[in-house]
Amino acid sequence: MRPQAPRGEAIFIASHRGQLIAALRLSPVDTVFLLRSLCVATDYRGQGVASALLDWLQGELSQIHCYSFPYQHLRDFYGRAGFVPCEPSEAPDPVAARFSGYLAQGRDICLMRYRHD
């Protein structure tokens, strides 16, 4: 069996010496995208891998409207990558509804959108 991303999703990876060390997903939601599931292998955390992956993705992000639901403790990290906090009322309804659902589950997250300068 070969793993596949759901239709319309894009998966971006970082590798080192042929080993997958980080990945993230851009998932379509209505007419925008959600940046989801940014993960870095334990042995590579704290070494700038996630920042490098997001830096590399800047060209893609500048062409789309993108939101993310990072954990509160990652708010500054995402801010350095070009995301700004926003209110659910500023997001498309499907994004706001997902965000509200995650909050109802008790997740300590915030809503951010990629800023277009």
What does this structure look like?
With 117 residues, the chain is of the alpha+beta class. The chain has one domain (10-114): Aminopeptidase, CATH 3.40.630.30. It has helices spanning 49-56, 58-61, 75-80, 93-104; strands at 10-16, 19-29, 32-40, 66-68, 83-85, 112-114.
How would a textbook summarize the main sheet?
6 strands, mixed
CATH evolutionary superfamily: Gcn5-related N-acetyltransferase (GNAT)
Strand order of the largest sheet: 1-2-3-4-6-5
C-alpha-based Rg, rounded: 14 Å
- CATH class descriptor: Alpha Beta
- Uncertain segments: none
CATH topology descriptor: Aminopeptidase
Spell out the helices and strands N to C. EEEHHEHEHE
Return the structural class: alpha+beta
Counted beta strands: 6
N-to-C CA distance:
42 Å
Helix content: 25-40%
How many domain modules?
1
CA-based shape:
globular
Strand content: 25-35%
Q: What's the CATH architecture?
A: 3-Layer(aba) Sandwich
| Rounded average pLDDT | 93
If helices are DSSP runs of H or I spanning 4 or more residues, what is the number of helices? 4
